[in-house]
Amino acid sequence: MAEVTMDKIVSLCKRRGFIFQSSEIYGGLNGAYDYGPLGVQLKNNIRDAWWKEMIQLHDNIVGLDASILMHPRVWEASGHVSNFTDPMVDCKQCKSRFRADQIDLNAPCPVCGNKGTFTAPRNFNLMFATHIGADVDAASTIYLRPETAQGIYVDFKNVVSSSRVKVPFGIAQVGKSFRNEITTKNFIFRSCEFEQMEMQWFCKPGTDEQWFPYWREQRMNFYVNRIGIHPEHLRWHQHGPDELAFYAKDAFDIQFLFPMGWQELEGVHSRTDYDLTQHQKFSGKDMTYLDPETNEKYIPYVVETSAGLTRNVLMALSDAYDEEVVAEGDIRTVLHFHPSIAPVTVAVLPLVKKDGLAEYASKLEHELRDDFATYYDQSGAIGRRYRRQDEIGTPYCVTVDYDTMNDNTVTLRFRDSMEQVRVPVSELVATIKKATKDYKRV
Ligand SMILES: [Zn+2]
């Protein structure tokens, strides 16, 4: 196992079209990234796996896609207007900005080295403010949402009255959120624009104590069993009294061993009835739930599972990355993605371009498109083409050679083992599907 560094991940992402710095030709925009052809596919695959896990494989979870722009009172109710701040200092010499809690204010500036040049700390709200309508004044100020969860709370009553769900039930949402981070670092780990996958589980007060461990287990299972992350790269971190929000009963983070160390990937939080109660107070609207069987009226408690989709992408890349010595002096870079999230599932390669092999392979690639994300590559030596697919994490390569023309069999090569087997074309789809179902991470 080679050491996985952030530099290696960033370099591979740029080289192979996973992730680019935003606005690169203008010098880049700090904390913003573009997902290239392979990156957007990887991100969508992880999103789809999560959506399927939540909506399709669990009872009583429905989806939602709330607006990024919301009424400004939402963020007063949620506490973001008054509390969602970081203490900030500026270096008077070089104008660099730092989080006061992340640097030693008595030490020299980490950028220019000048001493004693920091401004006094002041609180800086992390929400991006903008204006709606033609007038630019305080009354027109709105925010880009800093989290997706509030859209779920605000629509709670709409979902209950329109979709016949009964407590306990969940509302799941994937979408973009925005935070004006003072210090962005570690590539896509902390960016100003990011994507979240959140589910709020509404349950009867008291039953949250059973649901909390249930959702913790479900979420860890997703990473290990559904998208094939190494269990030894995942761990739990329970929030201590100093980390816990004042309204929260309990909170655990799933941490992943990123190249820069253990960091939060997802939070599973027991949030009580805090958010719905706040919205009832601020909106003046009744947020209670009427149990149709017992006629009890209450504001449900919430267990939240809140994952970073863009952090999931960084996790998938870091967990999959390896450099393997194939033979003396021959090292291959390989991404061991689980086949369910790999941007390309099957690459089809003619051994040579001539004698009808390219035409056969191209036709086969078209036929496979209905079942898999495919890629066709006819240029270069076959060994080099395998390596290109290894580097982007393609789990299966199909090679069309001269025997294919006679007996309609192809070589199926497995990325992880580099093993090659001969398979009749008629059995190819079933063979690949079975291999994906039985896939075990190396
Ligand atoms: Zn400075």
Protein traits:
BirA Bifunctional Protein, domain 2, alpha+beta, Rossmann fold, about 450 residues, binds zinc ion, 13 helices, 7-stranded mixed beta sheet
Describe this structure in words.
- The protein has 442 residues and is of the alpha+beta class.
- It has two domains: 6-69 and 146-317, Bira Bifunctional Protein, Domain 2 (BirA Bifunctional Protein, domain 2); 344-437, Rossmann fold (3-Layer(aba) Sandwich).
- It has helices at 6-16, 37-56, 72-77, 80-83, 149-154, 156-163, 208-226, 274-283, 309-320, 357-368, 382-392, 402-407, 428-437; strands spanning 19-21, 33-35, 61-63, 85-90, 97-99, 122-125, 129-131, 141-143, 169-178, 193-203, 234-238, 250-258, 261-272, 289-290, 297-298, 301-308, 321-327, 330-335, 346-350, 374-376, 396-400, 409-414, 420-424.
- The strands form seven sheets. A seven-stranded mixed β-sheet has the order 3-9-10-16-13-12-11, sandwiched between helices.
- Strand 19 (346-350), helix 10 (357-368) and strand 20 (374-376) form a beta-alpha-beta unit.
- The model has no long low-confidence stretch (mean pLDDT 95).
- Bound molecules: zinc ion.
- Residues 91, 93-94, 96, 109, 111-112, 114 line the site of zinc ion (ZN).
Helix content range of the residues, please?
25-40%
Distance between the termini: 11 Å
Per DSSP, the total helix count is: 13
Instruction: Give the mean pLDDT.
Output: 95
Beta strand count: 23
Q: Strand count, sense and closure of the main sheet? A: 7 strands, mixed
The CATH topology of the largest domain corresponds to: BirA Bifunctional Protein, domain 2
CATH-derived architecture of the largest domain: 2-Layer Sandwich
**Residue runs with pLDDT of under 50 for 5 or more positions:** none
Ligands, ions, cofactors: zinc ion
What oligomeric assembly is this protein in? single chain
